[in-house]
Amino acid sequence: MKDATAGFLMFGGVLVWGLFSSCTTLPDKPQGLTTKVYIANESSSSVSVVDGTTFKVLGEIDTLNHATHDLSLARNGKHLWATNLASGRISVIDTDAMETIASIYTGKRAHVVTLTNNNKHAWVANIGDGTISIIDTSIYRILGTIPIQGGPMGIAFSRDGKFAYVSSKDKFVNVVDTMSHRVIKRIPVGPNPHFLVLGPDGRIWGTNTGSNDVYMIDPRRNEVVSTIEVGPAPQQIAFAFKGTSGPNAYITVAGINKVVMVSGNSPTPAVLGQIDVGEGPNGIWANSVGTRLYVGHTKSNDLKVIDTGTNQTLATVPVGRKPIRVVASQ
To answer: Which of 6, 131, 142, 267 has the smallest set of CB atoms within 10 Å of its CB?
Structure first.
């Protein structure tokens, strides 16, 4: 395993470059019929790997760090990036070998990691340092940092790659210009705005985990254009179909142990239904065609596979302790 710690390129507290911005050119997705589901187990400091078709556990990967929290999978499916809260490090996992091949120190309380649209860089939110670290994914080196007021929590990129959206503990979403790496706007949202994701309609969706609602940001105006109450402590969001209806947003709501379904392509979203799941639902991901959901539960320590057409649980798979994030190959 390589230790890929490196120095920063800074100017006036802000990274300056012209070649390292997010880009819209997307590499090919991995081919094949097998979906692999990856689950970050925070209390086990590991990543469980589950076959998304047979629902069998394929193995458990040691991240070689502590308190594995968030995951981001390269589009070709070859490398998985994992944050480790207690270590302040990123683990890079070779998914074929199912082993950690690099460890990169980014800062105190490395919380989430998100790959840019072209997969050339990984952005890491360091809550304890109040920074975003930017890593070159080809050489595992930190290129620089961006200061974020209020403690960065979640990261998502706009569809065109021009903006990064960074939620912070002080109830704001920070809009970062990906060319200049400067915060150009701060959007007020709600308490503990943890999770952010790009929706199929191009809006940025986020959860106010400290409250009971989900909000949508229009990247053309960089303003919140809609909110909807879904229940106490909403966590994460995935998008899938129910028959011909969709895409719909499926939100894990920890306070009621349910997944709440919301219309995902409407200017004024509405709650369409609820699915009973396990204790402490948190991580959620949909397969590539939007017919199955993979839901991790931090209290019951398992992964449920749900058929979105029937809302029925197809399998319950034991994983590691406190499975908090789920991603899957496409």
So the answer is: 267
